[in-house]
Write a structure and sequence with these properties.
With 427 residues, the chain is an alpha+beta fold. It has 6 helices and 27 strands. The strands form 8 sheets. Strands 18, 19, 20, 21 and 22 form a 5-stranded antiparallel beta sheet that branches. A 4-stranded antiparallel beta sheet has the order 3-25-24-23, with no helix packed on it. It starts with a helix and ends with a helix.
Amino acid sequence: MHPTRRFVPALVRASLALAAGLALLLGACVQPAAATSSVPAPVALGIHRFGHLRPPDAIVARADPDQVGFSSPPKGADGVSYGPWSFDVAQDGSVWLLDEVNHQLLVWQPGQPNRPARTVPLPMDPLERIANFTVAPDHTIYATYVSPPGPGPKTLRLAALTPSGQLRWTAETIDEIFNAQLRIGPDNALYMYGGRPGQWWTPLTTPAGRPLPVAEQRRRTSPQQLLPGGLGLAGRTLGGWRVTSHSDLGALAGTPALVGGDPVVVLEVTQQPTTRFRYEYQVLRLARAGGTSLRFAIAPEARVVYGDAPMTGLRVGPDGQLYQLRSSRGAGVSIARYSLTPVPHGPPTTTPGPPPPTGPPIDNGGITTPTVTLPTTPAATHSPVRQWLPGLAGVTAATLTGLAMWLGYRRRHRVGQGPRTRSRMAS
């Protein structure tokens, strides 16, 4: 083939590739990158280094062993040991602890961790067999409990109490699981997580604090967790994160939360060597572009809580910090706090793993975290510059393509050449 014929298609292809690349680059500026792709951002953790636990930044609540109750079965008898199994951090920073053995709530004021400021007695009727609790912004106390034996539904019921523990109302729920989590949503409604088999969120009250009928609870049950700013975990996927590790990752601990626009999740990480089983929690603050802006390891509940696993042993407070329940019969109870503010040069808790193999990617012991739905930006909110960027890309593509065709034409149709010359070149 004549060199001129090789040159023209090559030039056209190069011009089109350049124009297409420019169009993609400009088009990506129209919306945030996380909202334009359903491909999860990668979060590669490498190999977890066990034994490098971060100490808490502060102890925000403390009670001596004689101030809280612990229970153990008689020696040789069946049963489980347990201590306080749930806590909450209210919007005003006060800390609330469920002391189910003594049938009361202990309350600490912000900045006064050494002893409870007050106690709230819980009514034996109907809360003789209380399961879990949470505190609303106005200090309304919500608690789930087991119904007395007898006919009727076998699901847990919900009680609403005044801040001093007086009963306001009770209602039915569709909660089938004793240790289901209770959380106040960004709309101030009460939600239940894990009350039915599977990962489901169920609203139990209206934002005004009135109980929802059972039929409405069923209708509005969803796999999506409502988060501030219109975000939700699961649901329609517009962006997300895929967390992988060369160590074994387990289930989520607690419930995910949004801190400064970043999802915060706590994952179980385990290792089964030949000598002893290793088990820790890894706290991750996920970055929008992928990776993490903060990660550290803490001891799991099984190593810091007396007896059976707690109902709520770990949670992110309304101030965007992580809190963990700790208890022992000898030391009593404490609640530790960890800051989730990114540290620019903090030491990592993992070491880089081996280079990935060639070929299709392999998820070696990783899991996919629940994806976070990111709301798309309405077109009306785009700036004028962003609105004409895609048009500029199209004009650029057309111009470069036309230039390539014109150069090719001039190369083949030189000045003074007629149809006969062109016919000979083509023969």
